[in-house]
Amino acid sequence: MSARFQEIDWRPTPMGDISLRRRRDPASGDDVYEVKLGDEFLMSSLFTAGEIALTRIGLAKLPHAELDVAVGGLGLGYTARAALDDPRVRSLIVVDALGEVIEWHQRGLVPLGASLASDSRCRLVQGDFFAMIGDGGLDPLEPDRRFHAILLDVDHSPRHVLHPRHAALYRPAGMRALADRLHPDGVFALWSNDPPDEQFTAVLAEVFAGSEAHVVDFNNPLQGGTATNTVYLAWKAADAS
Fold first, then answer.
1. pLDDT at 2 over 50
2. Residue 184: helix, strand or coil by DSSP?
3. Architecture of domain 47-235 in this structure
4. Domain limits of the chain?
5. Is the four-CA dihedral 63, 216, 21, 35 of positive or negative sign?
6. How many other C-beta atoms are found inside a 10 Å radius of the C-beta of residue 210?
7. For the purposes of burial, counting CB atoms within 10 Å of the CB of 25, is it exposed (0-12), middle (13-18) or buried (19 or more)?
8. For residue 52, what are the contacts with CB-CB under 8 A and spacing of at least 6?
9. For residue 150, what are the CA distances in angstroms to 7, 80, 180, 182, 195?
């Protein structure tokens, strides 16, 4: 890239104006991709450790040789890419509310886009993940389908949601509806930008057979030093109905 900054795409959406930007990092010389919703930064290719850890922690819990996985939130594709890098994954559905974000991948406007869009195991679905959990399922072609893993990276945390309607998922009834979309001994993993939340861990403990919170450390080149994310992991019992 010759320019230090480029706005690759900008679109009005029902959630606000969304933009995809690319800039050159002065320290490394690398291209950095950023997504903004209104004035709020949603994601950056500088910070991907948490998204990758979300997949690795979630799938590491599973003993199966073949996995069907659903991801809520496409973003820049790092959670989905980590799933496809696991040779056990035979199918992957990625649900995103914004068709614009899916289009960025299909058009190859983001670094991982072409590899995701061209992988025969991967299907990108436009839809409201939070509504689909309770009504119609995560696979529009197979409403009753269950998954071995559901990985979610949409909201900043269970307390800091992008839309008020998302909050219901993080309560016991919402988590039970999500658990119903999992196979017995299936796993749910959630990315959060906040430290472990005792209130949400209590919800997970109420609904699932077991749960834990993993703190993920990563280097923060913008602020210096180390930053952290949280990955929540919960699993159903093997004999759950």
1. no
2. strand
3. 3-Layer(aba) Sandwich (3.40)
4. 47-235
5. positive
6. 13
7. middle
8. 78, 79, 82
9. 32, 11, 11, 7, 21
